[in-house]
Design a protein that fits this description.
The complex is a heterodimer of chains A (257) and B (235). With 257 residues, chain A is an alpha/beta fold. Chain A is built from nine helices and ten strands. Chain A is globular and about 50 Å long. The chains are: A alpha/beta (257), B mainly alpha (235).
Chain lengths: 257, 235
């Protein structure tokens, strides 16, 4: 049985905003993908970002990670504008990249050391080392990333995202390819960190069980905008209802848009 | 079947080229047959030696050439960007794998003015060594350029600055190239010291400077595209 959803922190300090996205427009050469996205994540909150394939979830996450320059709008991470003070904003960010973006020709240990140095850390934090143990990642440390399975690459991407205990963790479908045991470890770990008010999590996912059982809020990205949001009370109501309530609600919201 | 047909095809092409040289009168009959025998023997022995690599089960082409030379079963005392330099080095080893170097080497060996009795073995070996070294030096330059954009994109969500990134990425490329070019110049100096100093040293320095400049420009452009160490992007 998975760990049940716990109430988040209530102190004002822990409730501070770790991410604010306002009026975000972004796209590629072929045209706009995002057209006016508004989003916010608090410390001590897990927001699940839902949406059909090619709805712009990854584009939004790339904008937040500073990998894609938006056409319009603002992104503020822990009070720092990503445009005006990118270094301070990125200092509070942990981004779990897609597995295919990891460097095939480096070993897992090299990746962790380089990423830690790039974040300006004096050492790899205990949280990451402990999670690596729980993931049984140690035997893979000195092998090339290119030889990893999808699940092992996902583990490495998550470990990189958690380096330096960032206030905001952004993950792009991080549970894809993870074995059930490792997925449970990660869900519980993120939930405990969020519940303790140490960070906010933004997770793009298609896994409705994570939304129902672990997230505090959910947002549906459709046609380049946030088409529907579910708050904590609404998710609790969906959890209490039998059957495929969230799935039905998602389908209805998609059809309505 | 694929291996056998590929090797046979290449061997046929080589022999056809040598036959043309023979017909043109640059090679006598016995030299042609000696060459044909050596090429066929080399193809057979090489195919047998390389056979296990076909079944290595490694996905990326040439991946098995990007070996980890030294594994370290513990964490560094302090995280460092230095291992980033291993990335272009590994990529260069893949670029300069035997499949890529063999055609270049073959052309260079055939270009040796051997005469009807065949060239001295030392000259052939020296040419082969120079070719391989130059190929690896050029591969390092190409690898640095190629890896720059992938590495910048990977590190874009971090706070590393473009100078630190560039330095970490190219230091190993620069050191390896400098050592390789110095060795080449030294070997050339053993044959003709004044000529090596007059021509080899300036050429090596020029190549090293051009290679470094190219790598630095590639790294800076990659940083700019990926938003690494940059503020003020977007509106």
């Amino acid at each position: 049985m998975d760990e049940p959803l716990r109430e988040g922190p209530t102190s004002m300090d822990a409730k501070s905003r770790v991410l604010v996205v306002r009026g975000l427009h972004a796209g590629y050469d072929k045209g706009l993908v995002l057209s006016g996205v508004d989003l916010a994540v608090d410390r001590g909150e897990w927001l699940a970002l839902l949406g059909p394939n090619a709805s712009g979830k990854t584009t939004l996450l790339h904008c937040i990670a500073g990998m894609l320059a938006p056409c319009a709008g603002t992104i503020v991470i822990c009070g720092h504008s990503l445009r005006e003070d990118a270094m301070a904003a990125k200092g509070a960010l942990g981004f779990g990249c897609a597995p295919e973006s990891l460097p095939d020709l480096l070993t897992g240990r090299q990746c962790l050391e380089i990423y830690a140095a790039a974040k300006g850390l004096a050492a790899i934090n205990d949280e990451v080392l402990a999670l690596a143990e729980e993931f049984a990642f140690a035997p893979m440390l000195d092998r090339f990333v290119g030889s990893y399975s999808l699940g092992t690459k996902q583990k490495l991407a998550v470990l990189l995202a958690l380096l330096g205990e960032p206030a905001l963790v952004v993950l792009d479908e991080a549970f894809n390819g993870l074995d059930p045991g490792s997925a449970l470890v990660l869900k519980r770990h993120l939930r405990s960190q969020v519940s303790a008010g140490r960070r906010g999590v933004l997770l793009a996912t298609h896994s409705l069980d994570i939304v129902e059982r672990y997230s505090d809020r959910a947002a549906l990205l459709l046609n380049g905008r946030i088409a529907r949001e579910w708050n904590r009370a609404e998710l609790a109501a969906l959890r209490a209802a039998p059957g495929e309530e969230l799935e039905m609600a998602l389908a209805a919201a998609s059809a309505g848009s | 079947m694929q291996v056998v047909s590929g090797t046979a095809g290449r061997l046929t092409a080589i022999l056809a080229f040598a036959a043309l040289v023979w017909l043109a009168g640059a090679l006598d009959r016995s030299a042609f047959f000696r060459f044909a025998f050596a090429a066929a023997a080399g193809a057979i022995v090489g195919s047998l030696a390389g056979w296990p690599l076909r079944h290595a089960g490694i996905a990326a082409p040439g991946f098995h050439y990007a070996i980890v030379r030294r594994t370290r079963a513990r964490w560094a005392s302090a995280p460092s960007l230095a291992p980033l330099g291993s990335w272009p080095a590994a990529q260069a080893r893949i670029f300069s794998r035997p499949k890529r170097t063999a055609p270049v080497l073959l052309l260079a060996m055939m270009a040796i003015p051997a005469g009807p009795r065949g060239g001295p073995g030392q000259v052939a070996l020296a040419v082969a060594g120079v070719c391989l070294t130059l190929f690896s030096v050029i591969s390092l330059s190409a690898a640095a350029v190629r890896v720059a954009s992938e590495a910048a994109r990977w590190l874009a969500p971090t706070t590393v600055g473009k100078w630190r990134f560039t330095g970490a990425l190219i230091w190993r490329v620069a050191v390896t190239q400098a050592v390789a070019l110095a060795v080449l110049t030294f070997l050339a100096g053993a044959i003709d010291l004044p000529q090596a100093l007059a021509v080899g040293v300036p050429l090596a320095a020029l190549y090293l400077a051009a290679s470094l400049a190219m790598a630095i420009v590639a790294a800076f452009l990659a940083c700019r595209r990926a938003g690494l160490g940059v503020s003020g992007r977007g509106v």
